[in-house]
Amino acid sequence: SCRPAWWKEVVVYQIYPRSFMDTNGDGIGDLRGIIARLDYLQTLGVDVLWLNPIYDSPNDDMGYDIRDYRKIMAEFGTLDDFDELLRQVHARGMKLVMDLVANHTSDEHPWFVASRSSRDNPYRDWYIWRDGKDGREPNNWLSHFSVPAWTWDERTGQYYLHLFSRRQPDLNWENPKVREAIFDIMRFWLDKGIDGFRMDVINAIAKAEGLPDAPAQPGQRYAWGGQYFLNQPKVHDYLREMHEKILSKYDIMTVGETGGVTTEHALLFAGEDRHELNMVFQFEHMSIDATDGDKWRPRPWRLTELKAVMSRWQDELYGKAWNSLYWSNHDQPRVVSRFGNDGPYRVESAKMLATVLHMMQGTPYIYQGEEIGMTNCAFDRIEDYRDVEIHNLWQERVLKGGEDPAAILRVIHLKGRDNARTPMQWDDSPNAGFTTGTPWIRVNPNYPEINVRQAMADPNSIFHHYRRLIQLRKQHPVVVYGKYELLLPEDEEIWAYTRTFMDERWLVVANFFDGSPLFELPPAVPCQGGELLLANYPVEPHGEGVADENPPHRFRLRPYECRVYRLT
Ligand code: TEU
Ligand code: CA
Prior knowledge:
- The chain is an alpha/beta fold.
- The protein folds into 4 domains: about 350 residues, TIM Barrel (Alpha-Beta Barrel); about 50 residues, Alpha-Beta Complex (Oligo-1,6-glucosidase, domain 2); about 35 residues, no CATH class; about 90 residues, Golgi alpha-mannosidase II (Immunoglobulin-like, Sandwich).
- The strands form 6 sheets. Strands 1-2-5-9-10-11-14-15 form an 8-stranded parallel barrel. A 5-stranded antiparallel beta sheet has the order 16-17-18-22-20. Strands 6-8-7 form a 3-stranded antiparallel beta sheet, with no helix packed on it.
- Calcium ion binds next to loops.
- GO terms for molecular function: alpha-amylase activity; oligo-1,6-glucosidase activity.
């Protein structure tokens, strides 16, 4: 059709329902809570809501372990609540995207219960069962959560594969019955009228023939087997089948969560001519502060590397595939604590990060609380954490491995997923207005200062800055369609780029640190002058009046300052 794809022009807001809004005092966010806050989201101006999993689950991995794909998690509400939510979202002109977790199920899903009951039951081949090798696992793969990827099942004398927790057995996508069952579930929700799927670890559904051992470090028994379960050729067969049978029949958006993808892989998953997905979440920029991809071995990050990674995605997908843009989600630390400054420059740096991201090409995703600059939250006691990834790490490294608990707690403070999962901070009443009961996870103690009520009342807040960014996107096609060009790639403090669409050119300049570097526009960029469209500091007394400054050609940036100019 000639209609531009709507998912290219939207801003998506990610809701982690468990921590968004509780309406019945049980300390757990619920669907009624989302309904209660739709007006807030409309004021922010977002177009699409993506909900983390809301299906029936024993919550070993907070809903990513699904027991019944057609039922709503009891704590979150009922199918009637869901229908009401969908109605109310649509009534406001917004759309709703659900999480599709199809690589694995809960070990309590009836398919797995049947599968593990005997070797010859009809569901045995729905999961990945193998004999041991020399009294050990069938291969040496490590799961994502610090434990081996295979668990021994006493009753039937075989191991089952799980790339995540022991309670998340991997489905066998080679079995056409498994594919049909997942497609049926997709139809069930799409026929209710939802507007798309975020597909959990979708690039892991196909495993390499023979499940080979991964190369291990000397002295290590287990190893990361990604090269044998990520981005395998067969994943594209499965996605094309899914596209032909399901996705192509609906006007929806799809985004694949695809850890370990390069731009080459992304062109295969989301190429305009491929008939697979609309876009993918890449993770390269999420590993610039990790050693060899290991998030638990943090290292200092460099702006030049961050710029290089993000700019490569901008350049290599341009005109061929669509980018997704994100700084944070429910698996990552809070961005203002990670790439900004959550101390004296929290507000400035949060606005700067938002500006740099939202002015790039692609569909931006805002993670709940990011729009008010929520920060990481460090608990002193391991018992206060709720995440299986954190507890498995503690188990393996402290309890079994004898490492220093204080050191492990420090990396959890930096990288743990619960940083992003503390309750949404609505106001300065007890528990941040999230619940009248006891929250399922502790509230960040900074809620009296950092909350939605404060942010909405303050015209200079991070929240209102996000609103303006969203409005700029809606008013100016250059934000959606403009070509991106990085300036000053070697600069260690400033990220500057232009966006160009027809005869319009915008300039984005951002200072990533607390110094005051001088920006000079490279002479190759055609520019007579500029109109300031957005900034995170008042520009008047600075800018024009100051001797030897001539913005946008040349000006000194204040700590975490950013500006957006339309060049003339
Ligand atoms: O995450 C998939 C993923 O690749 C993880 O390794 C993620 O990068 C990790 O959590 C960071 O340490 C998805 C979901 O987003 C996550 O919440 C689930 O736990 C996981 O799949 C299993 O379903
Ligand atoms: Ca509740």
